[in-house]
């Protein structure tokens, strides 16, 4: 009996402090049927956004039945050299991902002004494992896209 009381007490305090599980945010009614639109280079980003929206009980619909349009305006990736070795070859890079988006009603009125999500990761390049290094770089970009999709959905809660 004491064990159940402790569990209930913990749940009570967690709910009182505003804690909630990921994927259980509150969103404006206007976002209930959202169409996700993006540039051709952001197919992975669009897929991740749709998945995150669905996990937050937002219907992802076609443009003709949408109450809101989440527009991915631009996705940029960049690789900046941080360090070089004695031979002048790059050894460490900073990988950058920048995504610009906004949210509008179907009549084109603004729900959320243009926003930017910037993410970066450091990457040590191993010349002796060229194939593995390229795969690691792509995995880091994929990880950043997953994080960016979550951040965009979190920002939708401000509408």
How would you summarize this macromolecular structure in one to three sentences?
The chain has 159 residues and is an alpha/beta fold. The chain has helices at residues 2-16, 43-55, 130-156, and strands at 33-38, 59-60, 68-84, 90-104, 110-124.
Can you describe this structure?
It is built from 3 helices and 5 strands, in the order H-E-H-E-E-E-E-H. Helix 2 links the parallel strand 1 and strand 2. The mean pLDDT is 87. Helix 2 crosses helix 3. A 5-stranded mixed sheet has the order 2-1-3-4-5, covered by helices on one side. The protein has one domain: Lipoprotein like domain (Double Stranded RNA Binding Domain, 2-Layer Sandwich), CATH 3.30.160. It is α/β, with parallel strands linked by helices.
Layout of helices and strands:
Layout: H1 2-16, E1 33-38, H2 43-55, E2 59-60, E3 68-84, E4 90-104, E5 110-124, H3 130-156
Parallel strand pairs: 1-2, 1-3
Antiparallel strand pairs: 3-4, 4-5
Helix pairs in contact: 2-3
Shape field: flat
Span of the ends, CA to CA: 44 Å
Low-pLDDT segments: none
Main pleated-sheet profile: 5 strands, mixed
Radius of gyration: 20 Å
In CATH, the topology is named Double Stranded RNA Binding Domain
CATH architecture call: 2-Layer Sandwich
Beta-strand fraction estimate: 25-35%
Strand order of the largest sheet: 2-1-3-4-5
Helix content: 25-40%
Separate helix tally: 3
Considering the chains and any ligands shown, give keywords for the structure.
flat; 5-stranded mixed β-sheet; alpha/beta; 3 helices; Double Stranded RNA Binding Domain; 159 residues
């Amino acid at each position: 009996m004491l064990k159940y009381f402790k569990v209930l007490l913990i749940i009570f305090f967690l709910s009182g402090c505003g804690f909630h599980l990921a994927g259980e945010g509150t969103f404006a009614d206007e976002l209930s049927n959202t169409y996700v639109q993006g540039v051709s280079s952001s197919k992975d980003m669009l897929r991740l956004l749709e998945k995150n929206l669905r996990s937050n009980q937002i219907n992802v619909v076609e443009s003709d039945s949408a109450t809101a349009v989440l527009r991915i305006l631009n996705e940029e990736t960049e690789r900046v050299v941080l360090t070089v070795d004695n031979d002048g070859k790059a050894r460490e890079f900073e990988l950058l991902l920048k995504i610009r988006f906004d949210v509008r009603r179907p009549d084109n009125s603004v729900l959320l002004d243009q926003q930017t999500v910037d993410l970066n990761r450091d990457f040590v390049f191993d010349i002796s494992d060229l194939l593995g290094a390229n795969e690691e770089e792509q995995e880091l970009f994929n990880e950043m896209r997953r994080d960016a999709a979550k951040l965009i959905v979190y920002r939708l809660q401000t509408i």
